Amino acid sequence: MTHTQKRIITNNIVMVLSTLSAIIGIGFLFWILGVLVINGVDALSWTIFSEEGAPPGYEDSGLKHALIGQFMIVGVATLFGVPLGVLAGTYLSEYGQKSKLAETIRDISDIMMSAPSIVIGAFVYAIVVAPMGHFSGWAGSVALTIIMLPIILRTTDDMLQLVPSTLREAAFALGAPKYKVITQVVYRGAKAGILTGILLGVARVAGETAPLLFTSFNDNFLNTDMMEPMASLTVTMYNYATSPYEDWQKLGWAAAFILSMFILTLNILGRLIIMKRKGK
Amino acid sequence: MSLIIDKIFAHSTKLVAISVLFLVAWIFTVLFQHSMESMQALGFDFVTETKWAPNLEKFGALPAIYGSIVSTFLAMILAVPLAIGVAIFLSELAPAKLKSPVGVSIELLAAIPSVIYGMWGLFYFVPIIRDTFGGIGISMLTAGIVLSIMILPFMAAVTRDAMNTTPDILKESAYALGGTKWDVIKDIVIPYAKAGIIGSFILALGRAIGETMAVTFVMGNVHKISLDLTAPATSIPVTLANEFTEADTDLYYSSLFELSLLLLVISFTIISIAKFYFLRRTRVA
Amino acid sequence: MATIVDITEEKALEVKNFEFTYASADEPSIKKLNMPIAKNSITALIGPSGCGKTTLLRAFNRMHDLYPGNEYAGEILFKNRNILTSKEDLINLRIQIGMIFQKPTAFPMSIFDNVAYGMKLQGIKNKTELNDRVEKALCDAAIWKEVKDRLKHDANGLSGGQQQRLCIARAIAVEPEVLLFDEPTSALDPISTSGIEELVIELKKKVSIIIVTHNMQQAARVSDYTGFMYLGELIELGYTEEMFVTPKEKLTEEYITGKFG
Fold first, then answer.
1. Domains of chain C
2. I need a labelling partner for A72 at 20 to 30 A (CA). Which of A58, C11, C118, C235 fits?
């Protein structure tokens, strides 16, 4: 056998192996997705949205409490995280630029984005839960805000940098002060990108469970007081899925399905916005 | 008037930006302060002691550290070859019609929350491990496998992106010398994208070691060092998730904070290595 | 019909009724093209952007096969066989017909390994043989003196002109019969360019050369034959000295006198 023949055979073997690993990898992932959809759709019903949690065995139990809690915790986190992140990102792109301070903030934010979220939970426990003496919706929101901040900050920074500098110069040439140039010209130019960053940031924190375990904790019933422990879809999912009761497990799958669809929708929306802008 | 607003705006953006640094410093400080009691009481024994028995006021973190390392190591062994295979498939092999849909679904799967992977692991993978290896199915091995599947989409997507940075003209040059696809991948694409690929693997490692929910479901939180991979085990995040709300003494509470600090330091170090040594100037979210 | 000069030498390649269609296109980019390529001489391909000259060049080593869906029709004869058939052994074909690209393409490895790469692919492992042939190729590419003391260094540390000569060394190290140059000096400064041009002229003693260039002076300086292409067709192929003075076709005349393109 010549060397070239050997090379061709090796090539074919590797190509088969690579295709096989792609099939295995993708197979696993679609298995998870399939399980999620089958169990989720099976568990869906109107009572999921209309009823609160109930002890195992009760027929009329739902996820209303968790859905509302989730919405409030993530909503408040978004309310804080987005403006703070956008402001900080504005500093990096428009004022700090390539300065040492700006580069340091960028690096630290990048690291924060991959840091373990459960540690943020422990931190918030120490600064919010312990002094208050009890778990609360606020504590959960604070934890999610901290996780969201670096994501929004870095995407804003990146998106503002994409705005051509000639646009800024043109506005300055008309005599506009810098804050007006930024808020009226630069933000407008980067609108789609910032929006995508926000969508992805919300999607990311909406799936967080670990930092909520000991901040917002959980509540099996509807509570809209942010000062009190609050249910979230993720923690509810965790509690229900690890319970021995079949009806609770079923609710857990419904929660998993609703949450995944929400997160996937945000991700797809974000992609579409970016794609539409590129298409222009 | 305009000038004042201009100054206020500039300063408030700077203030918020700097607060990010302050926040990180604050996190380290708070975790450190709350770890003090355990550090003073247990000293270095904390990381070498193997017995974790809160009721006896014994806090040895070695089983959790061991579990974190072994489960992450298992996950990496399984995920790295698969990720490379998927990346090669996506960047060099797949027909144009498959490239985009498969690529996008992999990226979307990376966005699925880890709690879902954990739940899938508990209901669908634990029984398989139980039937294959005996035992209860909740084990170090299960945790490693579920973790590997969770990090696979991220690793594959980033590896593919790194491979795609190889200029076509460089690959064509190797084909023009009579190279096969595999020759071109191993001699040109992988060496060219090496820093990016290794960086993304290390970044995935940094994430895996801090991952909580994918493993909490399937690991068992048993503080025991066992060479048997099919035995239940624990890791630092699993211990935190299971025990934080149960800590009833100051030392227990403090030792959990010391675990948090330890985990933060470990992941910060790993992520920094990935970022500063391998991914300088490239950004991987 | 195109005006094609009678070639008296032996032919290295012969294009017959060649058509080429890109995967995404409805119309062929090259239409019914006939063209002989003389052995041990330099044939330049000129014409405005999009005329198909690079497309034609990349057909000679079947580079188009790297991207699915591209279609060939007609024949390209090389050593009495049509290389456009699906039976063609592409690895072997590409060893015999080498290529140099628009930009230097130093591989991410040492200078030595770059030049040895093609030989290693062929399974040559003998150290002395590799050393000898690498040295010979680097000498033939007129770069040996500059790099002989740093063969183990990363090839990306060389200048653009040096890298391009390294790529030529890499291509000739496997002793091809034909070399395809795709605008080899478009990324280089004038001094490096004249170095490469001298080298190309020197190389024709051993190989047949086809060079695509957008620079008519370059075609005039280095080539023996020049083919002028326009809108996917060969308009004229003639002796370079004659064609730039007395073109036979009106289109050729307009192009070389700068009336369009």
1. 3-105+178-256 (3.40.50.300)
2. A58
Among C228, C233, C260, C247, residue whose Cα is nearest residue C44? C228
Asked if residue A34 belongs to a domain, the reply is yes
What ipTM did this prediction achieve?
A: 0.93
Phi-psi region of B245 (alpha: psi -120 to 50; beta: other; left: phi over 0): alpha
Q: How far apart are CA B144 and CA B47, in angstroms?
A: 22
Is there a contact between C92 and A8 if contact means CB atoms under 8 Å apart?
no
Q: What's the pLDDT tens digit per position in A137-149?
A: 999 999 999 999 9
* Chain A residue nearest residue C125, CA to CA: A3
The strand pairing partners of C154, in sequence order, are C110
Supply the DSSP symbol for C20: E
Question: What is the gyration radius of the CA atoms in chain B, in angstroms?
Answer: 23
Say whether residue B192 is in contact with chain C using an 8 A CB cutoff: yes
Entry field: residues in chain B: 285
DSSP state of C140: H
> Which residue in the set A116, A203, A237 is minimally distant from B115, CB to CB?
A237
**In this structure, what are the phi and psi dihedrals at residue C21, rounded to the nearest 5 degrees?**
-125, 125
- Read off φ and ψ for residue C78, nearest 5 degrees: -140, 120
Q: What CATH number is attached to the domain comprising A168?
A: 1.10.3720.10
- Structural domain includes residue A152: yes
Nearest to B111 among A10, A22, A203 (CB): A203
Residue A27 within a domain? yes
Three-class secondary structure of residue B232 per DSSP = coil
Interval A117-127: pLDDT, tens? 999 999 999 99
Tell me the pLDDT tens digit for each residue of A58-105: 878 899 999 999 999 999 999 999 999 999 999 999 999 999 999 999
Residues A136, A226: contact at Cβ < 8 Å?
A: yes
Q: Which amino acid is at A131?
A: P
Whether the CB of B237 is below 8 Å from some CB of chain A: the reply is yes
| Domains of chain B from N-terminus onward | 48-278 (1.10.3720.10)
In-domain check, residue A59: no
- Give chain A's length: 280
Provide the domain limits for residue A248: 64-279
Distance CA C43, CA C50 (A): 19
In contact, C56 and C229? CB cutoff 8 Å: yes
